[in-house]
C-alpha cells in the first residue's frame, strides 16, 4: 500500500542497506520521502537498495560510514544535507549483537556493542540534531529493543546499550522539544532478519511459545511505525518507547 505521508521529506537511515533498516528505507520511499542510507560494510546491498528506491521516483543515495566514528558521522551528516538540500528525519537503526553470558564476555565484546548501538546513536543525534534544532523541526527515531526493557540472558552488552538508547531518547526529547524536534524509540521484539537467523531452531521454538501472536515480527512491522513517527501525524508524540513485539512484553 502506498501512502504520501512523507512527500518532500528526507530521511537519513543508519544501517539502511539490509534488514529492518532496508525495510524502513523502502517504506519511506513508498511514502514519497527521499532516502539517505548509511551502511558500514554492505556496499552491494546498499547499491541494490538505492537502485530499488530510485525506481520509486524519489531521490536516494548511500554513504559508507561506521556510526561509532564521531568525526566520520559529522562529515556524512554535512554531506547528506549538502546533497539533498535538507534533512527532516533521522533513524538510528544500525546495531550489532555479540551474545555471551556475562561471565564469559570479554571487555571488547561489551565495548563494541556499546560503541555501535549506543555511541553511534549519540554521534548521529548530535550531528543531525544540531541541523534539526537550527531548522526548528525534525524527527528522531531510535531503534531500541525489548531486550533493553526486559534484559536477556547472554545479552548484557546489548541490553545495556538498548536501555541506554531509551535514556538517550527521553533526554533528547526533553532537550529538543522546545525547538520542534521530537525523539521516540521503537522497541522491537524478535524480528525475522539476519540478526535472528543465527538463533538455533530449538531457541526459536521456545521464543515462539512466549509470543502471544505466535510469529516472529516482520521488518515491515517496524517500518510502518517509523513512517508514522516521521510524519506530520505524529507531531505531538515525543519521548515515547513503543514496543512492537507480538505481545511478548505483556
Ligand atoms: P541486521 O544485522 O540485518 O542489520 C544491521 C544493520 O546495522 C546493517 O545494515 C549494518 O550495516 C548496520 N551496522 C552494524 N554496525 C554498524 C556500524 N558500526 N556502523 C554503521 N552501520 C552498522 O539487523 P536488523 O535489521 O535485525 O537490526 C536493525 C536494528 O534493529 C538494530 O539496531 C537491532 O539491534 C534492532 N533490533 C532487531 C531485532 C531483531 O529481532 N532483528 C529486535 C530488536 C531490535 P552493514 O551490514 O553494512 O555492516
From TrEMBL:
Protein name: 3-oxoacyl-[acyl-carrier-protein] reductase
Matches recorded under PANTHER family: 3-OXOACYL-(ACYL-CARRIER-PROTEIN) REDUCTASE (PTHR42879), 3-OXOACYL-[ACYL-CARRIER-PROTEIN] REDUCTASE FABG (PTHR42879:SF2)
One GO molecular-function entry: NAD binding
The organism of origin for this protein: Acetobacterium woodii (strain ATCC 29683 / DSM 1030 / JCM 2381 / KCTC 1655 / WB1)
Active site residues according to the UniProt entry: 158
Subunit structure: Homotetramer.
UniProt-listed InterPro entries: 3oxo_ACP_reduc (IPR011284), KR_dom (IPR057326), NAD(P)-bd_dom_sf (IPR036291), Sc_DH/Rdtase_CS (IPR020904), SDR (IPR050259), SDR_fam (IPR002347)
Family: Belongs to the short-chain dehydrogenases/reductases (SDR) family.
Record bears the keyword Lipid metabolism: yes
Function in brief: Catalyzes the NADPH-dependent reduction of beta-ketoacyl-ACP substrates to beta-hydroxyacyl-ACP products, the first reductive step in the elongation cycle of fatty acid biosynthesis.
Amino acid at each position: 500500500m502506498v501512502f504520501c505521508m512523507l512527500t518532500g521529506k528526507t530521511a537519513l537511515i543508519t544501517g539502511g542497506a539490509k534488514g529492518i533498516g532496508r525495510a524502513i528505507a523502502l517504506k519511506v520511499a513508498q511514502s514519497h520521502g527521499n532516502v539517505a542510507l548509511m551502511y558500514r560494510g554492505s556496499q552491494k546491498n546498499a547499491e541494490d537498495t538505492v537502485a530499488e528506491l530510485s525506481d520509486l521516483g524519489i531521490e536516494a543515495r548511500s554513504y559508507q560510514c561506521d556510526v561509532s566514528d564521531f568525526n566520520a558521522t559529522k562529515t556524512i551528516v554535512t554531506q547528506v544535507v549538502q546533497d539533498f538540500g535538507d534533512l527532516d528525519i533521522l533513524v538510528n537503526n544500525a546495531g550489532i549483537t555479540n551474545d555471551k553470558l556475562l561471565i564469559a564476555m570479554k571487555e571488547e565484546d561489551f565495548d563494541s556493542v556499546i560503541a555501535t548501538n549506543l555511541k553511534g546513536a549519540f554521534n548521529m543525534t548530535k550531528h543531525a540534531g544540531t541541523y534539526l534544532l537550527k531548522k526548528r523541526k525534525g524527527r528522531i527515531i531510535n531503534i531500541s529493543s525489548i531486550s533493553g526493557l526486559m534484559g536477556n540472558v547472554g545479552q548484557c552488552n546489548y541490553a545495556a546499550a538498548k536501555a541506554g538508547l531509551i535514556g538517550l531518547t527521553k533526554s533528547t526529547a526533553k532537550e529538543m522539544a522546545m525547538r520542534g524536534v521530537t525523539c521516540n524509540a521503537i522497541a522491537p521484539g524478535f524480528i525475522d532478519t539476519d540478526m535472528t537467523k543465527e538463533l538455533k531452531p530449538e531457541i526459536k521454538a521456545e521464543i515462539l511459545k512466549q509470543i502471544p501472536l505466535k510469529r516472529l515480527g516482520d521488518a515491515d512491522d517496524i517500518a510502518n511505525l517509523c513512517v508514522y513517527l516521521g510524519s506530520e501525524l505524529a507531531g505531538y508524540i515525543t519521548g515515547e518507547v513503543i514496543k512492537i513485539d507480538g505481545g511478548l512484553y505483556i
